[in-house]
């Protein structure tokens, strides 16, 4: 059986001071290597962590749904108006009188009995009349 031998550099005897100096050098080399390797990664991670978030792409603005009818009643306290219409096909609403939310500007320029063409826009889970035009008398 062969005897295991080490190179001469590993077998030399060192004093305590020599071992302390050796360990200081090894630790200094390891710290330097760690700093050199971690600095670029640390800069990258800090840049990623502090980068402003990209705003979400704007949702396409939906086209308003068109309808026509006669204003039956208005309630400025609740911001609603009841319109007698011949149906809103885009929403599968049958002909009849339907209460819709209405913008304050629409309520201000509309009166009961007016024939209107109106635009419905979805706002907060409900359809709101956001625009009106006087409808020609039939």
Indicate the structural class. alpha+beta
Low-confidence parts = none
Q: What characterizes the major β-sheet?
A: 5 strands, mixed, barrel
| Arithmetic mean of pLDDT | 83
Number of domains: 2
Overall geometric form: rod-shaped
Instruction: Using the CA coordinates, give the radius of gyration.
Output: 40 Å
The H-level CATH homologous superfamily of the largest domain, spelled out, is Copper binding periplasmic protein CusF
What is the terminal-to-terminal distance?
A: 116 Å
By DSSP (H or I, 4+ residues per run), the number of helices equals 3
Overall helicity: 25-40%
What's the CATH architecture name of the largest domain?
Beta Barrel
Q: How is the CATH topology of the largest domain named?
A: OB fold (Dihydrolipoamide Acetyltransferase, E2P)
Beta content: 25-35%
The CATH class of the largest domain, by name, is Mainly Beta
- Give me the strand/helix succession: HHEEEHEE
Question: Describe it for me?
Answer:
This protein is of the alpha+beta class and 138 residues long. The protein is 33% helix and 30% strand. The chain has two domains: 15-50; 65-134, OB fold (Dihydrolipoamide Acetyltransferase, E2P) (Beta Barrel), CATH 2.40.50. The chain is built from three helices and five strands, in the order ααβββαββ. The protein has a five-stranded mixed barrel.
């Amino acid at each position: 059986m062969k005897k295991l031998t080490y190179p001469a550099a590993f077998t030399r005897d060192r004093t305590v001071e020599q071992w302390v100096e050796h360990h200081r050098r090894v630790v200094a080399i390891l710290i330097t290597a760690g700093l050199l390797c971690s600095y670029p990664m640390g800069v990258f991670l800090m840049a990623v962590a502090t980068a402003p978030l990209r705003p979400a792409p704007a949702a396409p603005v939906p086209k308003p749904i068109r309808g026509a009818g006669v204003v039956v009643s208005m309630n400025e306290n609740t911001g609603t108006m009841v319109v007698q219409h011949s149906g809103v096909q885009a929403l599968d609403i049958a002909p009849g009188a339907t209460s819709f939310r209405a913008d304050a500007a629409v309520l201000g320029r509309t009166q009961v009995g007016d024939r209107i063409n109106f635009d419905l826009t979805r706002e907060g889970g409900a359809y709101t009349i956001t625009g009106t035009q006087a409808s020609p008398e039939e």
